[in-house]
Design brief:
285 residues, alpha+beta, N-terminal domain of MutM-like DNA repair proteins, Helicase, Ruva Protein, domain 3, 4-stranded antiparallel beta sheet, binds zinc ion
Length: 285
């Protein structure tokens, strides 16, 4: 699933649409096979001939705002949601067979939302205030991509009592702690901070807590710099069609059985709350 760095990379490329006029937003005939899109076209008609005012990121969500209309669009890429920018809609490549939404622009490029596994979201809210009150947005923790990383707020949130008896590897995926962290960067951050994913939050020393916060900030920034991770199971691409490069420096993620790059011990894989996690038994005690 695209995490904060991937979503932010996508957003930065989509910014070329700012101040440009939409012709119409079309929910494709294919999208109408799915209940979450079925019959929703009228809600999107209010954006016809409106100008795109801003595209902001909240955790892994994007919020699209338009001039002269109060309603906003909330969009989540889910597992495989992908924005693609195309000049000519008649020359689409075969990799875009799962288009759910097309933003037809007055002038190219047009923006397509392709979503193979269909976990993406594309919803209209009546106002920006309304989307801010939407629980998944309202409850987001510190944004992991904020610079400098908001360490004090992170430490305060980590000290909340509902986290203390849970393993840190599980807690780090909770968007109420750090928004934008997913399974890949959680795994890499724990390795960087030399913390075992199974360690309970209450057992973490103050130094470990601080090192973890700093590791998250550093890993997410590095991933953003390299435009995110593109892997076989995460066929993430930028709207322009290029891929990310952050996978090249992963130290533990998907490296089960391979020697730890720090100490040579084979990397261990385990399942933690239905997700694969990877760690070094020697470096992360
Ligand atoms: Zn090691």
């Amino acid at each position: 699933m695209p995490e904060g760095p991937e979503v932010e990379t996508v957003r930065l490329e989509l910014l070329q649409l700012i101040s440009k006029k939409v012709d119409s937003i079309q929910l494709t005939p294919l999208s109408q096979k799915y209940p979450k899109y079925e019959g929703k076209q009228p809600f999107f008609n209010q954006f016809s001939r409106k100008t795109i005012h801003s595209i902001d990121r909240f955790g892994k969500f994007l919020v699209w705002r338009f001039t002269n209309v109060e309603a906003v669009i909330l969009n989540h890429l889910g597992m495989t949601g992908r924005w693609c920018l195309y000049k000519d809609l008649k020359k689409l490549p075969t990799t875009t067979k799962h288009i759910k939404v097309i933003i037809h622009m007055k002038s190219p490029p047009n923006a397509l939302f392709n979503d193979i596994r269909n976990f993406g979201q594309f919803k209209v809210f009546q106002s920006f205030e309304e989307v801010q009150q939407y629980t998944p947005i309202r409850s987001l923790g510190v944004d992991g991509l904020t610079t400098p990383f908001p360490l004090n707020e992170f430490l305060t949130r980590l000290a909340k009592k509902n986290f203390k008896d849970k393993p840190i590897g599980e807690v780090l995926l909770n968007q109420r702690l750090v928004a934008g962290v997913g399974n890949i960067y959680k795994t890499e951050s724990l390795f960087h901070a030399k913390i075992n994913p199974l360690k309970k939050v209450k057992k973490l020393s103050n130094t470990e807590r601080e090192e973890l916060g700093l590791a998250i900030g550093k890993i997410l920034q590095k991933a953003l710099h390299d435009k995110g991770s593109t892997m076989e199971f995460q066929p993430y691409e930028l709207p322009s069609g290029t891929t990310g490069n952050a996978q090249k420096w992963h130290k533990v993620y998907k490296r089960e059985g391979k020697p730890c790059l720090e100490c040579g011990t084979p990397i261990t894989r385990m399942i933690q709350k239905d997700r694969s996690t990877f760690y070094c038994l020697q470096c992360q005690k």
